[in-house]
Amino acid sequence: MPRTCGRKAGHNGEERHMAGGESRGTVSERKQRVRRERLGRCAPLFDGRPQVEISNVKLLPDEAIQLATAFGYRYLRTRGHKAVRYRIFVPDPNPVARQEALAPGTPVEVVAQHPAFQGLSARAARNHAEMIRGERNLLKVIPVLVVMVFGIVVMAVQAVRSDAAVLLAPIVFFILLVTALLLMLRKGLCTQRELEERATRLSGPS
Q: pTM of the full predicted structure?
């Protein structure tokens, strides 16, 4: 009797292990299916019209860039607020872009095989870098940073002169906020530089 229970326990453990593997496979397949559905809803927009707008609610930024590049479009500008942004694409006048572009109505399965989705497209990397550059609004960020740094200095002076420990909390908060903004700017610059280098590498010798 105990030996039988041991076999059942081992068998149940194997079933749980197999079920876990199937579950992980199912989650991965579900993500791929959802991604294909998102691309499938937006792909018909690239039918030759002079301008296409795709919000970050419909597609992630890199997906929008990849899809636009695959159909021969390039990034133009971004409008909207930070929560909901609309990225605007227009037909790329580059003859090479038109030659590599997929025809309107191409199935999503074929679209997903385009070099833009495989990290092998210089135009996709260049489009992505241009989008990062276009969305980096230094005219707004830099004045905000200057005001916050000035506020930190003023509060620090007041805290020293009046021995007001209550100012330590807002000082620390604004220091962390300034640090986060600087790190965000640095990350954007690094990503843009990496994309530009990839575009140059994929383009080959001129």
A: 0.75
